[in-house]
Amino acid sequence: MKTQIITLESHDDLISVRDRMSWAKTPRILLVWPKFEKVTLRQVDLKILQRHAATLGAQLGLVTRTRHVRADAEALGLPVFESTGEAQRIAWPKMRRRKWRRKAPDKSLREKREQVLVKEAAWRAHPVTRIVALAVGVLAVLAIAALFLPRAQIQLESVTKMQRVELSVSASPDIDSVFITGSIPALEKRIVVNGVQTITVMGEGVVPQSKARGEVEFRNLTQQAVTIPEGTVVSAGEVRFLTTEDAVVEAGVGKKISVPIVAVEGGIAGNVEAEAITAIEGRLGLSLSATNLEPTSGGRELASVQAGDQDRLRVKNSLMKNLEEAAHEKFQEELNSGDLLFENTMEVSQILSEIYDPPPGGVGTKLTLSMQVEFTARYASASDLTELATLAMNASLPSGFRAASGAVTVKPLTNPFLDEEGVLRWNIRAERGITQAFDSLYVTQLVQGLSVKKAQSNLEKNLPHESAPVIQLSPSWWRWVPMLPFRIEVIMKK
């Protein structure tokens, strides 16, 4: 007999197997369970597939070695085989068809129904009973309405007052977080300021007009000829001269030659006496000796107004004072609102540039100094001060109160001073508003089911307040506070 073989896969379910069975045109349908995959078909699914096969006029069989599947199939009367070959060789058991027999109608049903029916008691049909029942029903509806329809709104104005604490604060760069003991970080800030200052020169000086000139006599100290190059330096103490031409001293001890010289710097300092030049700079001093037989002359200078060290110091001090004021203002501008600048920690970190015009040695009646200076200073941030104040006030918050808002005002009571250990110390005062904390559940319990007057009296007696509580009922003609807590709304007015 022809058999339609359907091999199941792991993703098959009742719907997909049923659809695949619908295409079968044979009197036998064989479902083959995979060996190494799991098919999620329950016993009830197999029953549905068995009935579907019956509607198709076919008999359903299974090929599987899975124990629980075989047990389910045998319970349903489905043939189970070890392999498809066995299913085609062995005869399948015949399908059982149930025959439904129509029973004859029971003629005694009417009598049995009449026996079951119980006649209504007479008192239940009495008009008084019906009126009382109606009244009880109406009262029940009204009672339910009284419970669920009224709504109450209770407005309470909480007690508000100011909380104040005074704290001793210490700030140090070694601290990196806020402690309730009063220690906070001392933060560092750097800024760069530029400035220009001009003053009138008070000093006097001289300006070289010409350089002194003369001749020096070189004497050979060796047996060999010695070459004297142009620019050889000879000196009379701190005054130095240069030879202006090349020369050669003949070989032999005592041989001499005169060479012209000119002073290195202009001015009268180059006019030296005869035989004042005695030294030769460099290796030539080992082979020659030198002296000027005649005084040098021609060095002249002119008196003029010239900036001296005192003028430069004066303009620098004046400019530094202006720069410190500018730095202080710039620190205040760049800090956030509420930050506290420690003015006694402001100092010069480094001088980035310092330019004098005219430079030292220059002539002029005005002296201008341009400077770029970096300043450093320490400060306490407003967030750290607020955090410290909040910690301290929370620790001393009166019982039954809470913070009215997150706003905290911090004011210094003393100026910060730097102690020997480099720690800044000062006192502050912190303030904030606090309000009475009401428990809504407690308020509700005080007024449940009471009349408005009694509820008002209860609230005034048991709750602190600045003004009388306000109870509003809806509908307005109702005179009792609802019994149900969720119909009572408590509003706190600040």
Put the structure in a nutshell.
26% of the residues lie in helices and 34% in strands. It has 494 residues and is of the alpha+beta class. Among the domains are: 3-89, Transcription Regulator spoIIAA, CATH 3.30.750.24; 148-158 and 438-493, no CATH class; 207-303, Elongation Factor Tu (Ef-tu), domain 3 (Beta Barrel).
Remind me, CATH topology of the domain at 207-303? Elongation Factor Tu (Ef-tu), domain 3
CATH architecture assignment of the domain at 207-303: Beta Barrel
Radius of gyration: 58 Å
* Outline type: elongated
How far apart the termini lie comes to: 92 Å
Largest sheet: 6 strands, mixed
Number of strand segments: 26
Structural class: alpha+beta
Features:
single chain, 494 residues, alpha+beta, Transcription Regulator spoIIAA, Elongation Factor Tu (Ef-tu), domain 3, six-stranded mixed beta sheet, six-stranded antiparallel beta sheet, 10 helices, 26% helix
What does this structure look like?
By secondary structure, the protein is of the alpha+beta class. Among the domains are: about 5-90, STAS domain (Transcription Regulator spoIIAA), CATH 3.30.750.24; about 150-160 and about 440-494, no CATH class; about 205-305, Elongation Factor Tu (Ef-tu), domain 3. Helices cover about 25% and strands about 35% of the residues. The chain has helices at about 15-20, 45-55, 65-75, 85-90, 110-115, 125-150, 310-335, 380-395, 440-445, 450-460, and strands at about 5, 30, 60-65, 80, 150-155, 160-170, 185, 185-200, 205-210, 215-220, 225-230, 235, 240-245, 245-250, 255-265, 280, 290, 300-305, 340-355, 365-380, 400-405, 410, 415-420, 425-435, 470-475, 490-494. α3 (about 65-75) links the parallel β3 and β4. α1 (about 15-20) runs parallel beside α2. It is elongated and about 175 Å long. It starts with a strand and ends with a strand. The relative contact order is 0.13.
